[in-house]
Design the sequence.
């Protein structure tokens, strides 16, 4: 197995399964976490950006509240999540602080990643944390999530995060070192698969329904997560975290399965944008804005000369030049009402025009595609 499985990538989402962090009696394995923090620090020093999606809140909280997690009712588990989450994130904060790395807690529900408006908010917030060199420690907001609206498992949440932040790699650390042709626990002929380029029916069948005892995600959810992430241009690695310094070991060549994305996250995002069928409105841009966009900048309110249609933040808009030719598409940062008020204004006038502090751009450069330069 070749090395640099991790250091080949720049922006990484690391998902840590409960079984790695918490033992059967609900105790947090701090020495393991310290080795993870050391590996994260080493990657950060080399310029990698890291986000951590960590499970473990319910497992820790169940022991805090003295409840049996397998027999408890939903409301008890939600209370356990609240009691456990504070300890979980504190442990990460302490472990990272030893390497002068700051941590931030981010709790999300599916609404935050499935609804386009909230998706943009979550994306900007996580982006800002990375700009500030803070490591987000992310979990599902289990205390308010109801059974019907849960991500269900943190593998899926981690894949949504990878998509949200346009990560180029998602690392799913659990107690298995990858995908096998059959269940290695029961079939001596099971063979490890090092690389997957296409998640075919055969691959899905291999993933089966196996479940690890403490966490909720099995191989099937990991492969589904890999499907979400690779579709968004993010390669996905399934690797074992049961050893100390799991990330370093992985980078040094430990066994894993990699699901390779065929496009970069930026290209995948632009392909998605180009393929959206429902266009809610249009913005007409002045010549200066057209040049700025071609140069890779965001669209500022000052460059907008006309606004048409009825749209909300997160809707897809057509971008046109002053002659009416279609330039491309972008996601609206503002509704049509707000956009109309802001058109032609310098960014420092946004607050006065809206009556509240808005965002500085009309369409962010990560959320637009120009048709002629769609390479
Ligand atoms: N969010 C849950 C927790 O922190 C874990 C979900 C999962 O096991 O994937 O306890």
Sequence:
């Amino acid at each position: 197995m070749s090395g640099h499985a991790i250091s080949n990538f720049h922006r990484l989402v690391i998902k840590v399964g409960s079984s790695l962090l918490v033992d059967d009696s609900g105790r947090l394995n701090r020495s393991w976490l310290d080795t993870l923090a050391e590996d994260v620090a080493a990657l950060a020093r080399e310029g990698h950006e890291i986000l951590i999606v960590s499970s473990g809140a319910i497992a820790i909280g169940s022991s805090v509240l003295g409840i049996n997690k397998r027999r408890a009712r939903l409301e008890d588990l939600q209370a356990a999540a609240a009691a456990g989450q504070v300890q979980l994130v504190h442990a990460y904060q302490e472990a990272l602080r030893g390497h002068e790395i700051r941590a931030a807690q981010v709790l999300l529900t599916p609404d935050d990643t499935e609804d386009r408006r909230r998706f943009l908010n979550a994306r900007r917030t996580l982006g800002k944390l990375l700009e500030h060199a803070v490591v987000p420690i992310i979990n599902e907001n289990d205390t308010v999530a109801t059974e019907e609206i849960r991500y269900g498992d943190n593998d899926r949440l981690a894949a949504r995060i990878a998509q949200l932040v346009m990560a180029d790699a998602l690392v799913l650390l659990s107690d298995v070192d990858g995908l096998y042709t059959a269940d290695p626990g029961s079939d001596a002929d099971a063979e490890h698969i090092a690389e997957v380029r296409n998640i075919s029916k055969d691959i899905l069948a291999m993933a089966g329904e196996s479940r690890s005892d403490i966490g909720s995600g099995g191989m099937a959810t990991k492969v589904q997560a890999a499907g979400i992430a690779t579709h968004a241009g993010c390669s996905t690695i399934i690797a074992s975290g049961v050893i100390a310094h799991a990330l370093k070991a992985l980078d040094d060549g430990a066994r894993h399965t990699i699901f390779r994305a065929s496009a970069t996250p930026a290209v995948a995002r632009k392909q998605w944008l180009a393929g959206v069928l429902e266009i809610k409105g249009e913005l007409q841009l002045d010549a200066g804005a057209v040049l700025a966009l071609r140069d890779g900048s965001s669209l500022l309110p000052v460059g907008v000369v006309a606004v048409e249609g009825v749209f909300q933040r997160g809707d897809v808009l057509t971008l046109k030049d002053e002659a009416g030719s279609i330039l491309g598409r972008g996601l609206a940062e503002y509704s049509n009402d707000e956009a109309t008020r802001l058109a032609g204004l310098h960014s420092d006038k946004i607050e006065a025009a809206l009556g509240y502090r808005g965002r500085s751009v009309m369409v962010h450069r990560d959320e637009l595609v120009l048709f002629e330069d769609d390479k």
